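Example 3.2
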Amino acid sequence: MRHADHVARESQSNSATSALAASWRRSLLKHGLDPSDARRPERLTLPELARRRQAMDHFLRVASPQLDQLFNLVGLSGCNVLLTDADGVVLDQRVNAADAEQFRDWGLWQGADWSESAQGTNGIGTCLAEGRPITIHRGEHFRTRNTAMSCMDAPIWGPDGRLLAALDVSSARADQTERYNRLIGAQVAQTARAIEAMFFRASFPGARIVAPGDSVDAAVLLAVDKDDLAIGATRAARRALGLEREGAIRPRPAADLLGRDDDLTGFDKAERAAVARALARAEGNVSAAARALGVGRATLYRRMARLGLGEKNG
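Structure, written as tokens:
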């Protein structure tokens, strides 16, 4: 049976329940695509591509070293490393000169639109559509013209919790095995998490970046300001801590989110921090700290006792 006929049959079958069949169904019925369409993906003009790259310049600069590192691992095996925006448009890539012609012919090139709505089921587009790491191996692609490639992808989430990009490794090897795909897919997912964490850190340059103590996921990160308020959170942290799913988060005491025990609440915490800072600046001299705070020495001693601060704590 021809690939296009197989895709059409499975897409319209009422019994098709797999994730792959669901993507084929979206491609055929929602996006109105033809699996036998042999046209190359649409590519942006150079000015259009330049505008998209400029809009994500900070992100691309952060991601670039990670793309280099990933390509050093997979490039010699005939793989192409691609980074797209949230629309599936390829913004950056790494490819060997010997493989470039093949990938260019397939349309796996800068400026190409690999969204699911444009190309049907494929690594980049389906990863973005479903927001999860995915591998689309050869005949799992929607379009017949794409069945010679294997694509391993992972999403990258922005510091605002929204989908930002997709990281893709595509292979031109005819003998690429599904086991090898799994190994590459794991490396792609790890690199995507690393890029996400690095960009999160770069997006809060004045903040302290912390992770909940019991988290084993490197992508679970909080940005904490000088007042110990959590002002940013990665998508994984938002899910783990029940924060706003997208957009800016409402500032919250980091201690509350990190589960630290503290008997002080409200203004007591702010007062304790102010007293501790004054003592530190005065190098533990209570009289000097009291003058800086505009209170008497005896008053400061009483407040220190109530707040659990001894002279050595300063």
